[in-house]
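Entry for the shared binder. Reason: the reviewer on the internal report wants the predicted structure included alongside the sequence.
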Amino acid sequence: MNLGIKEKVVVVMASSQGLGKATALEFAKEGATVIISSRNQEKLNVTLTEIKNMSKNQQVFARVCDSTKEQDIHQFFQYVGDHFGRIDVLVNNTGGPKAGGFDAIEDGDWYQAFEQNLLSYIRTSRAVLPYMKKQQFGRIINVSSSSVKEVIDGLILSNTFRAGMVGFAKTLAREVAGDNILVNTVGPGRFATDRVTELDQLAADKQGISIEKIIEKSKAAIPAGRYGEPEEFAKIIVFLASSANSFLTGQSLVVEGGSLKAL
């Protein structure tokens, strides 16, 4: 199947590691022009080299951007617009917010999670929409969490702001569909990433057992019997961003190996 991605300009936020990195790599493999971002220049440089080598695509570029800072977002998309003249695909992605239940979360944590996991998606979407409307083509894919379908105990910040982001995305999708701009949300279940390892370790420390036991229990709760691989998640995003998807918008999908019981 020709996905129609070759030579599209794709921006993947927070893409120096984990699901963001895997997503950028899949787009690069399809021949897209890919711009990756991260707060950490050193990590970004390493990832840039890896993606170029693994994809055999030299049209991959990197730029530092802290998505919690409005000025960083403005400068980042100014750079993309000046250098490439268009933006076809935006993959919104950030790190997960602080873990913990209600009593463990202070006002500062709430503000930080709001800026990181909701406001940043709003700001980046605002930055790309003028390009997409002019082109009469665009794809915005928001990376969220399986918590948008079924809350996760001990992750009150994620449960709150991921849900808000889905409400924003659904509303935006309805407003821009007439401009051939599709907006969708994809939430990962348990994937083999540093974030999941961090959460598994927190659970192990809380329960006083080894992380291996936590992983064993987690896998047993997934009908597929394993954690997902980052590239499996990335392929879903690439499909949603491609010309193969021409009518699906405003949806919130979860990729989780069958672990959720919610409809």
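Summary line for the report: The chain has a mean pLDDT of 96.
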